[in-house]
Amino acid sequence: MKLYFFILVAFSLKQDTGPFEQLKQLEGCWQRIGTSVPEYEEWKIRDSFSMVGRMYKVNEGDTLVSEEILLIQNQQQVFYQAKTFNQPEQERVSFRLTGYQNGSYFFENPKHDFPRRIVYSFKGSDSLHAWIDAGDNNASTRVDFHFKRVK
């Protein structure tokens, strides 16, 4: 009976720390560092299996959305689905989570022209380094984005 109780308690205390749960730390508003016009990436948890995000600039009081993002857990896979402001809904580009370690998450789509890889790397609770590139064999195409949490 004691063993059954221990297993039950241990199971109830176990937290889901899979990659999608870990990515929920994106929730909030992040301001890009080092730009002349304020740029932001904002994330909201939609439900247990999805988050919505958007990238936008604020220029003279106007909010200009440049990209809408869905982060979705579908069974055992996680997908980053991006749609730029000029793409119709059916042309959302999907990147599959291919790896994660030490606070970095790698999303890839080798069939997409550019980018082929999107990486989010957390540097503490209030600092985020993201980048896009053409994949492992083409790191010279890398574009970096440094963010600080603003809320």
Which features would summarize this protein structure in a list?
single chain; 151 residues; mainly beta; Lipocalin; 10-stranded antiparallel barrel; disordered N terminus
Secondary structure: elements and pairs:
Elements (H helix, E strand, L loop, with lengths): L1 H12 L5 H5 L4 E5 L6 E9 L2 E10 L2 E13 L2 E8 L8 E9 L2 E5 L8 E6 L4 E7 L9 E7 L2
Antiparallel strand pairs: 1-2, 1-10, 2-3, 3-4, 4-5, 5-6, 6-7, 7-8, 8-9, 9-10
Brief digest:
By secondary structure, this protein is mainly β. The chain has helices spanning 2-13, 19-23, and strands at residues 28-32, 39-47, 50-59, 62-74, 77-84, 93-101, 104-108, 117-122, 127-133, 143-149. The model is unreliable at 3-14 (pLDDT under 50).
Report on this structure:
The chain is mostly beta strands and 151 residues long. It has a single domain, classed as Beta Barrel (Lipocalin). The chain is built from 2 helices and 10 strands, in the order ααββββββββββ. A 10-stranded antiparallel β-barrel has the order 1-2-3-4-5-6-7-8-9-10. A hairpin with an 8-residue loop joins strand 5 and strand 6. The chain is globular. It starts with a helix and ends with a strand. The N terminus is likely disordered.
The count of DSSP E runs of length 2 or more, i.e. the number of strands, is: 10
CATH topology: Lipocalin
Mind telling me the CATH class? Answer: Mainly Beta
Query: DSSP helix count?
Result: 2
Assign the CATH superfamily.
Calycin beta-barrel core domain
How much of the sequence lies in strands comes to over 45%
Fraction of residues in helix: 10-25%
Mean pLDDT: 87
Gyration radius (Cα, Å) is: 18 Å
Distance between the first and last residues' Cα:
47 Å
Poorly predicted spans: 3-14
Q: What is the number of domains?
A: 1
Order of helices and strands: HHEEEEEEEEEE
Strand order of the largest sheet: 1-2-3-4-5-6-7-8-9-10
Main β-sheet: number of strands, strand sense, barrel status?
A: 10 strands, antiparallel, barrel
Give the structural class. mainly beta
CATH architecture: Beta Barrel
Estimate the global geometry from the Cα principal axes. Answer: globular
